[in-house]
Amino acid sequence: MDRRHGADAERVALAVPYSHALVERGALCGVQFGPVEKAGDLYQQTSIELRRFMPTHPVAKVRYLVWDLLPAGIQAALLGIGRVRCFAVVAGGLCVGSVAGRAGAASEILLYMNESPPTGKTGKFGLSRRLVPMTGRDPEEHGRTASPLELLFDLTFVVAVGTAAFQFAEMVAEGHAGQAVIAFVLAMFAISIAWISFSWFASAFATDDWLYRAVTMLQMVGVVVFSLGLPAMFHSVEEGGHLELRAMVIGYVVMRIAMVLQWWRAARQSPSFHDVGMANIRWTVIVQAGWIVVAFVHMPISAVFAAFGVLGALEVVLPVLTQGSAGGTPWHPHHVAERYGLFAIIVLGEGVVGTVASSGDLLGGGDGTHWTWNAIAVVIAGVGLTFGMWWMYFLTPFGDILVHRRGRGYLFGYGHIPLFIGVAGAGAGLHVAGLYMEHHAKISGTAVVLALAIPVGLYMLMIYLLHTLLLSTADRFHILLIALTIAVLVTAVLLAAAGVAIAVCLLVVMLAPFVTVIGYETIGHRHQQQMLEELGTQ
Q1: Are 230 and 160 in contact (CB under 8 A)?
Q2: 32: helix, coil or strand?
Q3: Residues 6+ apart with CB under 8 A from 287
Q4: Which residues pair with 302 in a beta bridge?
Q5: pLDDT tens digit sequence for 314-339
Q6: CA dist 108 to 10, 11, 116, 295, 363, Å?
Q7: How confident is the model at residue 115 (pLDDT cuts 50, 70, 90)?
Q8: Residues 203/137, Cβ–Cβ less than 8 Å
Q9: pTM for the complete prediction?
Q10: pLDDT for 45-67, tens place per residue?
Q11: Could you tell me which of 384, 353, 379, 383 has the C-alpha nearest to residue 503?
């Protein structure tokens, strides 16, 4: 413990999760607190002081809850008139005690921290997940990883991505490739925007208390409603003349309004991010009002697509309008990179789903004993392609890059949208191949291979593009790898056009990501290491 500016600390109990140091120069008049192990005898008093601080009487508990829910302005007014001696928010633990300020008058200290309190026994009427002020997370927090709630949230998007990929595959197999691409891009864009919005907010402000969890559950309900509206939207695009968006928009607006609630809480409880939070609320509400008009007001189809383009552009630039640079909120580079990697794995799961769907009537036959060459080839190609795409994604250490290139967070975040489209499209392409081999498709073999090769190519090009733009360095070796990858995909299409069996063409497409994998593991990793070292010295 260290005294500064003449402040004397008395009867202070200190509890610091993970032994993080506390520094508070405002309410504590310059008193600095060190980690628990440096607090000496004060650590022994922690349990006594915490029992005094945490009341067991229900009425007292309500008082603390009411205080936490009060707007910041009312809290400040109460502090000003002396109804509450002191209230402050700092990071890392919980402190209760008395501190003599410069004027010599002792002030009671009530410090809430941005880490959830222990979830042990809290009394007869206690809450295990008490409300924690949403003050912003530490962007340099050691060991930050995805939470179980975030993983559960991602699983709801499996339904949305899977539904969009299935509808896309069915439309392509019916010969409506153009309409299928439009509907699929619309669906994946909305899915990606909703997921990105939550993930970046969670990285910066997640508290994991009961209110945060409840609002997140509301977002999950919105994802399910959105998914239920996807078939109607795809069907309307296929029929032409109108765009059925009502159910989709209802689910999407539910997701976005839940984010408004989260931003309102952050704006109220974190003075540093009050303006950012209120700006997010204003712009999000404006854009959602636009989506409601597009979905429920009858307009010509051309006007609908024009409005979709404008509103979609606003969704993408919304963070720029509300917080300026990508460093406007305290998001964690490695946590964000991990979240994107996990979502990429979830979307890659569509490749496995597509493999199962494509081999359903081929693998095993009617009695489950008839194995065909086509069935074996589809399984090998599907699993091999998914594995190669997974390997290729994690060759780039996005977390390490974002540590040094925090200002390019927008590029990383929204640059993944076409990447996610490519991954989900590859899974749908495998499904199209299965429909073709089951004689349920109305397209040629060449079109089938294109339905797989194009999204795979999009995915791999986005990997290279993100790598180059984030590092601001081009590697000539990448040009060679891209050329060889394109050559593999073109070869697969030419083989299909020449009448070669689709199963063989699928195996050729499977080789595309392994061009990059082999190139990196043999030569490219040294080039990348040199780029990272140069980035660290800048």
Answers
A1: yes
A2: strand
A3: 256, 311, 314, 315, 318
A4: none
A5: 999 999 999 888 878 999 999 999 99
A6: 11, 11, 22, 54, 72
A7: very low
A8: yes
A9: 0.77
A10: 333 333 334 444 444 444 455 55
A11: 379
**In this predicted structure, what is the pLDDT of residue 128?**
65
Nearest to 13 by CA among 84, 98, 88, 101: 98
Tokens (6 digits) for 448: 């089938």
CA distances from 75 to 68, 86, 117, 498 (A): 9, 10, 22, 75
Rounded CA separation 294/249 (Å): 9
CA pair distance 456, 477, nearest whole angstrom: 20
Provide the greatest CA pair distance for the chain. Answer: 91
3-state DSSP: the chain helix, strand, coil percent, rounded to 5? 70, 5, 25
> What are the Cα distances from residue 74, in Å, to 66, 71, 266, 532?
11, 6, 16, 49
Task: Give the residue carrying structure tokens 């995805």.
Answer: 146
Q: What's the pLDDT score for residue 435?
A: 87
Averaged pLDDT score across all residues of the chain = 79
Classified as helix, coil or strand, 337 is helix
Would you list the DSSP string of 240-256?
A: -S----HHHHHHHHHHH
Q: Whole-angstrom Cα distance, residue 291 to residue 311?
A: 7
Rounded-to-integer distance, Cα 68 and Cα 56, Å: 17
Question: What residue segments make up the domains of the chain, in order of their start?
Answer: 8-113, 141-331, 333-538
Which pLDDT tens digit goes with each residue over 302-314? 899 999 999 999 9
User: Token pair of 273, please?
Assistant: 């991010």
